[in-house]
C-alpha cells in the first residue's frame, strides 16, 4: 500500500512523501497511526547522531488503530486502539527472563539498527529505495507495520495523543524515578532539564511523593511548563557560576535524588554534586554518550553517593505501559498538561524547531 511518511533519505534531509508499505508478515501488525510524539531522538537521528542511519522513516512513539494483523498475532485484532512502543522486547532471552526488558538482546541486532524484530523492513520509497523503520516503529507516518511485541492496548478514556507520549518520554522519565531510583516519599528531588523526559521525571517525582520537587533548566519557558505540572520550585541556572551550590541552598536537608534528563558532562557533574551524602544521581539523557566524563571519585565514595544510569526508564513495556495508562486514568499522572501543541505531519520541521527553542513541552503529530 501507499502511505505518507516522514522520510530521511540521507543525513540532514527530511521529506514528507508517499512511501510503499508491505503488508504485515507473521507476528506483525498494521496500524493506522493517529498520533506520534515528537522527540529529540528523532531529531538526533535526522542529524545522523544516533546508531540508526538513513534511509529510514522517523518516529518511535505513537498510537493508532489496528487495521490488519499477520498470522499468529494474539494480543490485538483489527479495530483495537493501541500504543506503538519502540522497545519490542523478545521476552525470551536471558536478559528479558531476568526482568530487564529494556536491555533485551534482540534490540541491538534489530531495533537500534532501525529494523523490524525479524531483522528486515517493510518500507520503500515510491522509486524503490528500501527504507528502515526507526526504532522498529517508524510512527511518523499515516500507517506503520510493527512487531506484535511493539503493541500495547489502550484502555477507554485515554486519547491517542496521551497514549503516544506514554511510550517514550513518560516511560523514560517516570520509569527513571519509580523503577531505576526507586524513589521514596517525603524527600527533596531535583530534575535537571525540563523537556518531555525531564517533565515526565518531574511527574514521576510527584507520583513518588518527593517533596519538594525542584525543576532546573536554562530557559524560563521550560520552568513555566515545570511549574504548571507541579514543580514546587524552579531554578534557572543559565547565569549561575556554581549551580550545584545554588541547588543545594534550596533545601535545608539536602537533595536526595537528582534526575538528569540532559546527560551532558556538566549536568552529570551537577547531579552528582547536588545530591546530599547518601543521595542518588540518576542519568537519563544521552548528550555525552560519546564522551569520557570525569567525576569526583573521592566524594562519590566518602559521601556514599549512588550514580545510576537509566535506559528507557528500566521499563518492561508490556507490563509497565499499562500501569502508566492506569495511573493516568486514575488522575495520578496529569499528562494532558505535558502535550502543548499538535502539528500536521507536514509541519514536522516546525515541531523540531519549537522543541529546540523550548516553545513546547511535548509536541505531537496529528496523523488522522
Ligand atoms: Zn523518544
Ligand atoms: Zn529479550
Using the 3D structure, state the CATH architecture of the largest domain: Alpha-Beta Complex
Number of beta strands: 18
Bound molecule types: zinc ion
Rg from Cα: 20 Å
Helix content: 25-40%
Question: What is the terminal-to-terminal distance?
Answer: 17 Å
SS-derived structural category: alpha/beta
CATH domain fold name of the largest domain: Quinone Oxidoreductase, Chain A, domain 1
Strand proportion, as a percent range, falls in 25-35%
Order of helices and strands: EEEHEEEHHEEEEHEHEHEHEHEHEHEHE
CATH top level label of the largest domain: Alpha Beta
In words, what does this structure look like?
The chain contains 11 helices and 18 strands. The chain folds into 2 domains: 219 residues, Quinone Oxidoreductase, Chain A, domain 1 (Alpha-Beta Complex); 128 residues, 3-Layer(aba) Sandwich (Rossmann fold). With 368 residues, the chain is of the alpha/beta class. Helix 5 links the parallel strand 11 and strand 12. The protein binds zinc ion (2 copies). One zinc ion (ZN) binds next to helix 2 and helix 3.
Question: Can you summarize this structure?
Answer:
The protein has about 375 residues and is of the alpha/beta class. The chain has eleven helices and 18 strands. One zinc ion binds next to loops.
Key attributes of the depicted protein:
2 domains, Rossmann fold, globular, 368 residues, 18 strands, 11 helices, binds zinc ion, single chain, Quinone Oxidoreductase, Chain A, domain 1, 7-stranded mixed beta sheet, 6-stranded parallel beta sheet, alpha/beta
Amino acid at each position: 500500500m501507499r502511505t505518507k511518511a516522514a522520510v530521511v533519505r540521507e543525513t540532514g534531509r527530511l521529506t514528507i512523501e508517499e512511501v510503499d508499505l508491505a503488508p504485515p508478515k507473521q507476528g506483525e501488525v498494521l496500524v493506522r497511526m493517529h498520533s506520534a510524539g515528537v522527540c529529540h531522538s528523532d531529531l538526533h537521528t535526522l542529524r545522523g547522531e544516533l546508531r540508526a542511519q538513513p534511509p529510514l522513516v522517523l518516529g518511535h512513539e505513537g498510537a493508532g488503530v489496528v487495521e490488519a494483523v499477520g498470522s499468529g498475532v494474539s494480543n490485538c485484532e483489527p479495530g483495537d486502539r493501541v500504543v506503538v512502543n519502540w522497545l519490542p522486547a523478545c521476552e525470551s532471552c536471558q536478559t528479558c527472563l531476568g526482568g530487564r526488558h529494556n536491555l533485551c538482546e534482540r534490540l541491538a541486532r534489530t531495533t537500534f539498527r532501525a529494523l523490524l524484530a525479524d531483522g528486515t523492513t517493510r518500507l520503500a520509497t515510491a522509486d524503490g529505495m528500501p527504507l528502515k523503520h526507526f526504532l522498529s516503529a517508524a510512527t511518523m507516518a499515516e500507517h506503520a507495520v510493527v512487531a506484535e511485541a511493539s503493541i500495547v492496548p489502550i484502555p477507554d478514556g485515554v486519547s491517542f495523543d496521551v497514549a503516544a507520549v506514554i511510550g517514550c518520554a513518560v516511560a523514560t522519565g517516570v520509569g527513571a524515578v519509580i523503577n531505576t531510583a526507586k524513589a521514596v516519599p517525603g524527600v527533596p528531588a531535583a530534575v535537571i532539564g525540563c523537556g518531555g523526559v525531564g517533565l515526565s521525571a518531574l511527574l514521576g517525582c510527584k507520583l513518588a511523593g518527593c517533596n519538594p520537587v525542584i525543576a532546573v533548566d536554562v530557559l524560563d519557558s521550560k520552568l513555566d511548563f515545570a511549574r504548571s505540572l507541579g514543580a514546587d520550585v524552579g531554578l534557572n541556572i543559565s547565569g549561575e557560576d556554581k549551580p550545584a551550590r545554588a541547588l543545594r541552598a534550596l533545601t535545608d536537608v539536602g537533595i536526595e535524588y537528582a534526575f538528569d534528563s540532559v546527560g551532558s558532562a556538566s549536568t552529570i557533574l551537577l547531579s552528582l554534586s547536588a545530591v546530599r551524602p547518601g543521595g542518588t544521581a540518576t542519568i537519563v539523557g544521552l548528550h555525552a554518550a560519546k564522551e569520557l566524563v570525569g567525576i569526583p571519585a573521592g566524594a562519590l565514595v566518602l559521601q556514599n553517593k549512588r550514580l545510576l544510569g537509566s535506559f528507557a526508564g528500566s521499563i518492561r513495556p508490556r507490563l509497565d505501559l499499562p500501569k502508566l495508562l492506569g495511573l493516568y486514568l486514575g488522575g495520578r499522572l496529569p499528562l494532558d498538561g505535558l502535550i502543548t501543541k499538535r502539528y500536521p505531519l507536514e509541519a514536522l520541521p516546525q515541531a523540531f524547531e519549537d522543541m529546540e527553542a523550548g516553545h513546547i513541552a511535548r509536541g505531537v503529530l496529528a496523523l488522522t
